[in-house]
C-alpha cells in the first residue's frame, strides 16, 4: 500500500510514517510532502492508495487540495488529520471529498483504524466528532451551515489575512470573483469588515491568533 502524507512539519510527517510502517504490513511505502499543491501533483503522478492530509498548509489549504484531488479522481481515499475539531470544518472537508476525518489529539489506535477503514473504501469519522454532528452540539457552527465549500475556503483565507489577488491565484479564480464572494460572505455572516471576519474565525476555532498574516499585496 502506498500512502501520501501531507503536513507542513517534517517531524510530524516522520512521526506518522514511523507509526504506520511499524503497524501496517511490510509492503507499505510512504510518500511525504509539505504543501497542498505538491500533494495534488504527487497524487496525479504516483496515484497513492491513501492520502493523509492536514488542513492548515502553506499555499492552498488541505480542503482545497482534497477538492482538486477528488475532482480528478472521485474514488480517491483521503483521510483528513487536523488540529481542528470544529464541526463546520469537518463538514467542509467531507463535502470536498474526504472519506475520513480525525484530529491530531486522537490516540494512535484511532489513526490506525482510520487508515485501515479509509484505504479499504469505507468512511471513518472520529467518534466524538461523529457524536457532535449527530447532536448538533457546535451551535456557533450553525452560522456556516449554509456556506458552499468554495465560500468556506475563501472565508478562511480572508480570515488568515490573504489578499483578494492571492486567494484568486491559489484557487484559480478571478480577483473579481473572489471580491464578489467576499461581499456575499460579509452579508451572509452579518459582519461589516475583514476584522470582524477574523474575529469570527478565531471565535469558532477555524484559525489561531498567530495564523493571521498581513499580505504585502494589501499594504
UniProtKB/TrEMBL annotation:
SUPFAM superfamilies noted in UniProt = C-terminal effector domain of the bipartite response regulators (SSF46894), CheY-like (SSF52172)
Top-down, what is the taxonomic lineage of the species of origin?
Answer: Bacteria, Pseudomonadati, Pseudomonadota, Gammaproteobacteria, Cellvibrionales
Segments traversing the membrane? none
Residues forming the HTH luxR-type domain are 140-205
Query: Is Kinase one of the keywords?
Result: no
Q: Where does the record place the modification 4-aspartylphosphate?
A: 54
Q: What is this protein called?
A: Response regulator transcription factor
Keywords for this protein: DNA-binding, Phosphoprotein
Q: Which GO terms fall under biological process for this protein?
A: phosphorelay signal transduction system; regulation of DNA-templated transcription
- Locate the Response regulatory domain: which residues? 2-119
Query: What organism is the protein native to?
Result: Spongiibacter nanhainus
Amino acid at each position: 500500500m502506498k500512502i501520501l502524507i501531507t503536513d507542513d512539519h517534517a517531524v510530524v510527517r516522520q512521526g506518522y510514517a514511523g507509526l504506520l510502517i511499524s503497524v501496517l504490513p511490510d509492503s507499505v511505502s510512504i510518500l511525504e510532502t509539505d504543501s497542498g499543491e505538491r500533494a495534488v501533483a504527487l497524487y496525479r503522478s504516483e496515484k497513492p492508495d491513501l492520502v493523509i492530509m492536514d488542513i492548515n498548509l502553506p499555499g492552498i489549504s488541505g480542503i482545497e487540495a482534497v477538492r482538486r484531488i477528488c475532482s480528478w479522481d472521485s474514488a480517491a481515499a483521503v483521510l483528513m488529520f487536523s488540529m481542528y475539531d470544529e464541526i463546520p470544518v469537518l463538514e467542509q472537508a467531507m463535502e470536498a471529498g474526504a472519506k475520513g476525518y480525525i484530529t491530531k489529539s486522537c490516540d494512535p489506535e484511532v489513526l490506525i483504524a482510520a487508515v485501515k477503514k479509509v484505504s479499504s473504501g469505507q468512511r471513518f469519522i472520529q467518534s466524538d466528532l461523529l457524536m457532535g454532528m449527530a447532536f448538533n452540539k457546535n451551535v456557533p457552527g450553525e452560522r456556516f451551515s449554509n456556506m458552499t465549500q468554495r465560500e468556506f475556503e475563501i472565508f478562511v483565507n480572508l480570515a488568515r489575512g490573504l489578499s483578494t489577488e492571492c486567494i484568486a491565484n491559489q484557487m484559480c479564480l478571478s480577483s473579481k470573483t473572489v471580491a464578489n464572494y467576499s461581499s456575499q460572505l460579509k452579508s451572509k455572516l452579518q459582519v461589516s469588515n475583514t476584522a470582524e471576519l477574523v474575529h469570527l474565525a478565531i471565535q469558532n476555532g477555524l484559525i489561531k491568533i498567530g495564523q493571521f498574516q498581513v499580505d504585502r499585496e494589501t499594504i
